[in-house]
Amino acid sequence: MASLLRRSAKFTSGLLSSLSVCTRNGRACALPYHQLNHRNSSTTSKIKVDLDSSTGVAVMTFQGPPVNSMSLDFLTEFAISMEKLELDKSCRGVILTSGLPKIFSAGLDITEMYGKGPEHAAVFWRAVQEMWLKLYGSNMVTIAAINGSSPAGGCLMALSCDYRIMADNPRYSIGLNETLLGIVAPFWFMDTMNNTIGNRETEKALQLGLLYSTSDALKAGLVDELVPEEKVLTTATEAMAKWLSIPDHSRQITKSMMRKQTIDKLSSNRETDVNYFVKFITKDSIQKSLGMYLAMLKKRKA
Amino acid sequence: MASLLRRSAKFTSGLLSSLSVCTRNGRACALPYHQLNHRNSSTTSKIKVDLDSSTGVAVMTFQGPPVNSMSLDFLTEFAISMEKLELDKSCRGVILTSGLPKIFSAGLDITEMYGKGPEHAAVFWRAVQEMWLKLYGSNMVTIAAINGSSPAGGCLMALSCDYRIMADNPRYSIGLNETLLGIVAPFWFMDTMNNTIGNRETEKALQLGLLYSTSDALKAGLVDELVPEEKVLTTATEAMAKWLSIPDHSRQITKSMMRKQTIDKLSSNRETDVNYFVKFITKDSIQKSLGMYLAMLKKRKA
Amino acid sequence: MASLLRRSAKFTSGLLSSLSVCTRNGRACALPYHQLNHRNSSTTSKIKVDLDSSTGVAVMTFQGPPVNSMSLDFLTEFAISMEKLELDKSCRGVILTSGLPKIFSAGLDITEMYGKGPEHAAVFWRAVQEMWLKLYGSNMVTIAAINGSSPAGGCLMALSCDYRIMADNPRYSIGLNETLLGIVAPFWFMDTMNNTIGNRETEKALQLGLLYSTSDALKAGLVDELVPEEKVLTTATEAMAKWLSIPDHSRQITKSMMRKQTIDKLSSNRETDVNYFVKFITKDSIQKSLGMYLAMLKKRKA
C-alpha cells in the first residue's frame, strides 16, 4: 500500500508538470481535466473534474457507484485532483457535487476498514486525513452542491467547504452518524463540525449520531441554503461568483487565519492520530460491529 | 470536616463493595437504592435514588427541603450516589429531578460560605468541584428533568447534563445569577455555560446575572425542551431511551472527547481554584454581601 | 510620531491629576469633560465627553467630520478619554455614539496607512491596538449607541462594547468589510467578532467582507437591539441603568474572566502584530489597492 501511494505520488507529479506547462502557456487546456485523472491502472476514474478557465471555477463530480464511497482509490484521486487545481493558477474555486442520484457521498468505505489488517488501516487513514487537509485548508473557494444524502465522511466533506447548498428533498439527510455504527468521529471531524454549528449542537449531534433532515440541517447551520434539487448546481455557481468577487489574497489570508489552529491540530499529530485509529478499528469488538453493519447493508440490498 | 469526608469515603467504599457483589450475581438489587444512601449518622438522605435495572435508568430525586440547597451534606451524597451508579454496570443513564414543588435546586447553600472560616470554605468548595466533575464527566447519559426554578448551582447542575427538559411554567426561571449576589461564577461554571449557549450569550448572562424565563431559556439554548409540568419526567424517560439506543462505548468516547478539555482545566488546577475561592469568599466585603443576602432571605420568609 | 505620543501621554497625566483632585472632593466637576479633552495643540477635539456624575454615566460623542475616521489623532484622543474615565471613580459606564449624521464611524483612516512609510504605520497601528485594548478591556460598562453606518474599525469598536443598540434605518450597515478593500482584519478583530457571533458566521462574514443590513445584523447577533433612530440614545441610557444595577466588582471580575484570554493574545504579542501589519501594509500591491480605493472615494465625493 505504501508503494501504491508512492506510485500515485510519482504519477501525480508527472501530471502536474505537464499541466503546469499547459497553463503557463496561457491557453486553456484542450485535454479535459477528468481524462488526466485516470490512473495508469485499469481502475475507472471516480471523480470527474471540469475546469472552466474563463470563470476559474472547477466542478468536481463524484461518480463512484453505487454511493460515492470514499475508498482508498476515491480519496487518493480526490487529493490528487485538489492538488492539481490548487497549483493551477487559472483555477480559483471548486464546486463539489455528485453525479449519482440521491447520494452526495456515503462517507468512508467501510470495506477498507473491515478485515484488512493494521497496515492497510494506516494507509487508508492517512488518505482520509489528506482529503480533509487538502479540502479544509484549500486556498480556493470551495462550495458543496449537496444533491443527495450526505452521512459521515460525506458530511465532513461538505462541512470542510466554504459554503453549503443542499437539495431541499425531504428524503435526503446529512450528519456525522458514526456512533450509530459503533465507531467514533475523530477529533478533527468534531472540530470541523464545532467550527460550523457550535459546541452544544455538535455535542448532541455526535453523541446521538444525528442524521439531520434538510430543514433541520438548515436550522442548525449545518448547511447554508436549501434550494430545489434542479437548482443546486446553478445556485452553487452563483454563490461562487459572489465569493470570487473578493480579492483572492485577502480572502485566502482570512480563511487561513480562521482555520489554521484546527488544521495544525491534526497536521502536527498525524501519526498519533493514525495510530489511534488503527488501534481502535482493529479491536475485535469494533470489527464485529462493522461486520454486522456490512451484513445488514448486504441484506438490505438483496 | 476533613474527617467527615474521610468517614463518608470509607462508608461509601463499603457500600460499593456490597453493591457490586449484588449486581455481579446478575439479580436486581432487592434493597432500594435510596436506603443505601442513608449515611450512618442521624441526617436524613437528601437524595433519593431509584434504579430500574430492567431499563438501566436511575432517577435521582432531590428531596432537601425547603429548596434543595447544595449543602456540604447534599453535595457529598450526590457525589457518592453518582459514583455508585457509575460503577454499577446495570446503570447506563441517570435522570436528575426534584421531589419538591416549584424548585429544582436553589444552588449552593450560602450558609456554608458565610461566617464559617477558610477551612470549611475549602472543604465545601472541593465538594462543589467534585459534584461538577462527577456529573459533567459522567460516562452515563445524564438528563435534567427541571421541574422548578433552577438558579446558580442548580443551573450549573442542569447545564452539566447531556440533555435538559424544563417544565413550561412561567413562574420558573433558570440561570447563573451569581453577580446579583455580589459573587462571581467560577471559570468552570462559565466554561460549562459557554459550551452550551456560546460565548456572547454567556458573557451577557454572567455579567447581568440573568435569570431566564423558560421561553427565553429555550430560545438561548439553555434548555433543550419545554413541556407541561406533569410531563417532565415522562419526556425525560423517553429522551433517555433515545440516548440509550446509541452504543455506550461510542457515545462515551465521543462525550469524553467533547468535554475533556473543559474538565482537565479544573481537574489539573483544583487546589488553585480552591485557594482562589477561599480567598475571595472570606473577604470582608463578600462576607458582608452574603450576610445582607441571608438577612433579606430570612425577612422574606417571615 | 513617537514624540507626539510622548507629548500626549505627558499632557494626559497632567490632566488626570487635576481631575482626580476634583473628584476626590466629592463634587461634580464644574468643567465639562470635553473641554478637558482639547489637546494643547491647535487641533480641534474629535471626541466630546460628557460625564453625568449623578448617574456615573459618560457619553462619548464622536465628532470628527465627515465620517469619524479613526485617524491617529482620533485614536489617541479616544485612548486618553477612556483612560481618564477609567480612573475617574465617579464614572461607571460609558456610551459611545456619533454626533454626525448617518455614520457611527467609518473605521480606520486609510490616509494614515497610505504612502506614509513604515515608521508612521507602526505608530498608527499601536494606536489602533491601544483603542481596542482600552475598550475591550474596560472595567466600565460600555454600550454602543450605533446611530449610523459602522464599517470596519467602526464595527470593531461596537463589537468591543458590552452591549450594542443600533438605529433601525435600512440605509445603515455594519460589518468587518476589510477584504473588500484588499486588506485583512487582524486576528484580534477576528477574535472579537468570533466571541460575539460565533465561528461560522465570522468565517463567512470576514471572507466575504459582509456589510450587514440592520435586520441581518440583529439576526446574526452582531447587534443586540434595533430601535428607531431617535430612541438610540435613550435606549442606551436605559440599558446602562440595567447593567449598572449589578455590583461593579462582580461584573468586572466576570467580564475580565470572559475577555482575558482574547486580550492576552494581543497584549503579549503587540510588537509582533505591529511588525506583521507594517510589513503587510507597506507592500506595493496593498499600497496600490489602498490608492485605488482612495481615488474611488475622491471620485465619489466629486
The main sheet of chain A orders its strands as 1-2-3-4-6-9
The number of helices of chain A is 12
By oligomeric state, this entry counts as homotrimer
State the order of secondary-structure elements of chain A, H for helix, E for strand. HHEEHEHEEHEEHHEHEHHHH
Structural class of chain A: alpha/beta
Number of strands of chain A: 9
End-to-end distance of chain A, in Å? 32 Å
**Whole-number mean pLDDT of chain A:** 88
Strand content of chain A: 5-15%
Major sheet attributes of chain A: 6 strands, mixed
**Which runs of chain A of at least 5 residues are low in confidence (pLDDT < 50)?**
1-42
Major interchain interface with per-chain residue totals: A-B, 22 and 22 residues
Query: What is the overall shape of chain A?
Result: globular
Protein name (chains A, B, C): Enoyl-CoA delta isomerase 1, mitochondrial
Catalytic activity (chains A, B, C): (3Z)-octenoyl-CoA = (2E)-octenoyl-CoA; (3Z)-decenoyl-CoA = (2E)-decenoyl-CoA; (3Z)-dodecenoyl-CoA = (2E)-dodecenoyl-CoA; (3Z)-hexenoyl-CoA = (2E)-hexenoyl-CoA
Keywords (chains A, B, C): Acetylation, Fatty acid metabolism, Isomerase, Lipid metabolism, Mitochondrion, Transit peptide
Main location (chains A, B, C): mitochondrion
